[in-house]
Amino acid sequence: MVLADLDPSSAKLLIGILGPILPAFSFLFILRIVMSWYPKLPVGKFPYVIAYAPTEPLLVQTRKLIPPLGGVDVTPVVWFGLISFLNEILVGPQGLLVLLSQQV
């Protein structure tokens, strides 16, 4: 489906879905960035697993493309930037989905 083909009601539905999901994942990746400063954290235990479990599958795949630079894993920063960009482009104040939802 192409964004330009969306009717306003579908755009509103996507805003309702992506609106909370994208900021939540941004927050999770911020937590992962902070967690990376403490490599001895038990990431399999509560409360760390809350940020670890949903983000690690994405990070594993990204680490295959972007290896650690100087021993520093930059993949959480890459994902945070990508998700922030998508959030702004799609559901930000001038986002594509917002503009499509306002069409008459």
Structure description:
The chain has one domain (8-102). It is 65% helix and 0% strand. The chain has four helices and no strands. Helix 1 (8-35) crosses helix 2 (49-65) and helix 1 (8-35) packs antiparallel against helix 3.
Task: Summarize the model shown.
This is Protein COFACTOR ASSEMBLY OF COMPLEX C SUBUNIT B CCB3, chloroplastic. This protein is mainly alpha-helical and 104 residues long. The chain has helices at 8-35, 49-65, 75-91, 96-101.
Which SSEs are present, and which pair or pack?
Elements: H1 8-35, H2 49-65, H3 75-91, H4 96-101
Helix pairs in contact: 1-2, 1-3
Q: Give a short account of the largest sheet.
A: none
Number of domains: 1
Helical percent range?
55-70%
Task: Give the distance, in angstroms, between the N- and C-terminal Cα atoms.
Answer: 20 Å
Quaternary structure: single chain
- N-to-C SSE series? HHHH
Shape: elongated
Q: What Rg is obtained from the alpha carbons, in whole angstroms? A: 17 Å
The assigned structural class equals mainly alpha
In DSSP terms (H or I, runs of 4 or more residues), the helix count works out at 4
Our estimate of the beta-strand percent is under 5%
Unreliable spans: none
User: What is the typical, i.e. mean, pLDDT?
Assistant: 91
Count every beta strand, where a strand is a DSSP E run of 2 or more residues. 0
List keywords for this structure.
104 residues; mainly alpha; CCB3/YggT
